[in-house]
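A student in our group prepared the protein record below, which I am reviewing. Here is the record exactly as it was handed to me.
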Amino acid sequence: MKSQRWFWLLGVFLAAFVALGIPFWQVPYAKVSLPNTLMTPALLVLVLGAAAARLIGRAGFLATLLVVALAAPAVVMVRVVVETTQDPTSHNLWPFEIFLAWMVGLLASLAGVGLGSVPGILARGASRGDS
């Protein structure tokens, strides 16, 4: 059962990584403005994936929050690595880029984890007889 949870987390991470990465990597370097460039409809894949991992995959709150949130900074890090191999002076503020992407990923993941946790919270309340 535990491996199924990690399977969900890995699947959601990869789906969010690809969904966020493809449009982000196509934006020319001069037009990238973090965090705005990551704020695309593809971010919904991260939110809905986190909700699904929590609700359907029964993954833990903190594990889902952190693993899914890492998709956004991973996308930025790939870009930083690729572009600095071509021009070493291109990303001189890369730690800030990673931090901004981490904040975007963390907030989106938090929204998804919260959304995926609501049915469980409501079910526990109903089973206790609380109204």
In short: The mean pLDDT is 91. Residues 2-124 form one domain. The two ends are 32 Å apart (CA to CA).
